[in-house]
Write a structure and sequence with these properties.
Chain lengths: 312, 312
């Protein structure tokens, strides 16, 4: 399988530049003091639509447009952030967007998709419904992670980290289907080869960890839902797994209680509104699932902020 | 009375640079769509200690140090953000800090002061207690707004806005004692003379509005507390009033319900954790207290983020 390259990511960065923000890399004094290393947060919650997802969605639609293949309609499936991102990209490029989302989708995410004009079908068979809609509409599916153009788009996060920061020692990336961590690791392998890139999944939804152990795509049985709803991908893709095997140093998982505590604390410490999925890196450091590089520089990729704030 | 100049602000910027963050100026698509103009947020909630206040506090202590007059101890009074900022500056420069804060201080603010090692005296006579402590300790008071060095430090926010943005049309600034708006307006008058700078107070605590009308400092009677606790200065200072008269285009006030609604909405729209004081500019635009420059560029100065998130 042909992997996404750092050149693909550079091309994506040029392509999507008019449509995405270059998000800030924020120093966080409190977390630095707590962990004994310099902790920076890549604040993708401040991205348009409130998550990193427009990077991959815009790169895919713009790539299709360059090839003269921009469709009138696309479908996709998503916990909500990719859905909003495809709706956002579609609105800019004149493409109608229909998404399948879980019945349990967060209200903030449903509202967000509607805001950009996306049509929503609620279902618990996300991928099956998406594929059925694609057949009915005779239109392409812009899958949330397992497309090279999506991986390349998400990789622009890693490119920006390395442009802002000469020598990160460790970058922690939330993992759902693996597109973000695969893309970021590819960009960082090129620009900062000594930096470790580690993906973090909720233990309740660890499709990538299981697939790496099994050496094949694993479909997760429907289990208890994780509070990190944005990471509840029912499987990892073949493209993302290949990318992760080549470029990612490790993939670890964290428990629900650790995610919930990290969620409250990281919002207080950073003054950013974050969704639970965005804080799994902090949870992993605190739980010892990833060793802290003492005195080094750690980047936590805060993937999104589409959630109601936690209750006291 | 000698006013603070843009040169004073430039000197402050150089002085405080090692101790403060250059905060991002963030585009907010949702508020831009709502208001029909380009809305940017100067995210001072992301500043060290969670508010803009270290700018003025650091500039004052560093100025004293340059003059060979750095004391071993300072006292101050504050709703909490200035207190944390002085404690922060004191920790860096080896100065012991004692602050008088209101009995009703937000827990997030009490915690924040303690985090930086500040000693807290809870009282409802903020200024009186501060002055008594200064006499007892025989040390200087680093007042929260009515010092030229504080005004110059806060003015660095305006300098950064103009460095990031060629032609703002309107900058809205939360007003407590008036140090922030006075400093920002001074910087902007120099760098972007066509830009309007408007201060916004809670109607329940409008010391500056009243002083401008009365042409003298007005001490507010103790009334119902505003949700925008950071803006509940019991009076505006002589220095800040002089600065405001010279440089600020207008000062308006907004009601509690408008602040509360703006608080929830602005957190959702920006994905920033903000305290109610930080959102009065949005409340003023929505209430019509300040005309929206249609198609223009508006900067909302989000002054801080030290509060528990709003409940659903």
């Amino acid at each position: 399988m042909e992997l996404v390259s750092s050149d693909d990511i550079a091309a994506a960065a040029r392509r999507i530049e008019p449509y995405v923000l270059r998000t800030p890399l924020l120093h966080t004094e409190r977390l630095s003091d707590e962990l004994g290393c310099r902790v920076l947060v890549k604040a993708e919650n401040l991205q348009h639509t409130g998550s990193f997802k427009p990077r991959g969605a815009c790169n895919t639609l713009l790539s299709w447009q360059e090839q003269g293949e921009l469709p009138e309609r696309v479908v996709t499936f998503s916990a909500g952030n990719h859905a909003a991102a495809v709706a956002y990209a579609g609105r800019h490029l004149g493409v109608t967007v229909t998404v399948s989302m879980p019945e349990s989708a967060q209200q903030a995410k449903v509202d967000n998709v509607r805001r950009y004009g996306g049509e929503i079908v609620l279902t618990d068979d996300l991928r099956g419904t998406c594929d059925r809609l694609a057949r009915e509409y005779d239109c392409p599916a812009l899958y949330p992670f397992d497309l090279p153009a999506v991986i390349a788009g998400q990789g622009t996060v890693g490119r920006e980290i390395c442009a802002d920061l000469l020598e990160p020692d460790l970058v922690l990336v939330p993992v759902g289907g693996g597109g973000l961590v695969g893309g970021i690791a590819t960009a960082i392998a090129d620009a900062a080869p000594d930096c470790r890139v580690v993906g973090v999944e909720p233990a309740l939804s660890n499709a990538v960890e299981q697939a790496l152990a099994a050496h094949e795509v694993v479909r997760l049985p429907r289990g208890a839902p994780t509070i990190a709803d944005g990471l509840a991908a029912p499987f990892a893709g073949e493209h993302t797994l290949a990318q992760i095997r080549r470029y990612v140093d490790d993939v670890v998982s964290v428990g629900e209680r650790d995610i919930e505590t990290a969620w409250r604390d990281m919002i207080t410490a950073t003054r950013l509104l974050l969704e639970p999925s965005a804080v799994v890196g902090l949870a992993a450091l605190r739980a010892g699932a990833v060793p802290v590089p003492e005195g080094g520089t750690v980047v936590l990729v805060a993937s999104g902020g589409n959630a109601a704030p936690p209750r006291d």
